[in-house]
Structure to design on (292 residues):
């Protein structure tokens, strides 16, 4: 990489770091603990009920045996792990609002990663296209997170296409202990990953954020357009001024949306959605609030 390009990359990473650090410390600190801490709780012991204890923690078997109320006491596991599944397929290079989908994914991933290490937890990343392109094992520290951001912004997929199922299988195999698996993708994915998701969901908590460009959702009326599929290289000339063309495009987008949303709802996966021209903070806050 040339010096100019490397300096520009470092500038982007530093900009993401400053924003992500501010958000993770000021806005998402409490939301993170509420959403993820307490999910890693293990049973420790029982003790007699005290005034003010949560009645939902009463151990009814022990209470019946001793004829007085006892509650279950839990202890928080020492550390949790977040595993980011980052879509690095070529469709992520698209963007019409000043930043690409990949750049937005980097910002969201950076915020999640800094929130994780701020709470002394571990974060790792699986980069995937239609195969697992690279794996960064869970770790801690600023240097570790900056390495993650560098890879998100620079890694070029070796393979075309997208296959979330491959990444989910890999995550299930490498992450033996329970973790939060967080998928960042545009979900332009023709593979069938619902069966794999159901398997992973039994072992791990799964969350997802869809990143898209506004012109993927609504085709603008600007006359003849030459469009190119970033993943297959196929080009096509379309007349965007045609109402029937725009309607066909709208139906295709809605079908794509409904497919992944239906799958996530079926397996109780919390998910959000954000466009490249929008602020991702409210979407992430909303997702955290629904997770807690």
């Amino acid at each position: 990489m040339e010096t100019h390009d490397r300096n520009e990359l470092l500038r982007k990473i530093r900009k993401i770091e400053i924003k992500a650090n501010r958000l993770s410390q000021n806005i998402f600190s409490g939301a993170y603990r509420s959403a993820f801490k307490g999910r890693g709780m293990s049973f420790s012991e029982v003790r007699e009920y005290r005034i003010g204890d949560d009645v939902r923690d009463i151990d009814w078997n022990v209470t019946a045996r001793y004829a007085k109320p006892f509650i279950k006491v839990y202890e928080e596991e020492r550390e949790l792990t977040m595993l980011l599944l980052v879509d690095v397929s070529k469709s992520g290079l698209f963007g019409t609002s000043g930043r690409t989908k990949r750049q937005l994914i980097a910002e969201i991933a950076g915020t999640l990663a800094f929130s994780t290490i701020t709470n002394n937890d571990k974060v790792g990343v699986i980069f995937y296209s239609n195969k697992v392109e690279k794996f960064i094992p869970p770790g801690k520290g600023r240097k570790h997170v900056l390495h993650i951001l560098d890879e998100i912004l620079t890694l070029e997929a070796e393979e075309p296409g997208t296959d979330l199922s491959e990444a989910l299988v890999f995550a299930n195999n490498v992450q033996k202990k329970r973790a939060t698996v967080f998928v960042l993708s545009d979900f332009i994915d023709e593979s069938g990953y619902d069966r794999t998701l159901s398997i992973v969901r039994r072992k791990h908590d799964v969350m997802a954020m869809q990143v898209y460009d506004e012109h993927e959702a609504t085709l603008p009326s600007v006359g003849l357009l030459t469009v190119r599929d970033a993943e297959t290289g196929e080009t096509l000339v379309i007349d965007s001024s045609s109402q029937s063309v725009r309607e066909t495009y709208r139906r295709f987008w809605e079908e794509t949306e409904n497919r992944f949303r239906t799958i996530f709802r079926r397996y109780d996966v919390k998910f959000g959605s954000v466009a490249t021209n929008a602020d991702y903070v409210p979407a992430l806050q909303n997702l955290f609030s629904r997770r807690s």
Summary: The CA atoms of residues 71 and 159 lie 54 Å apart.
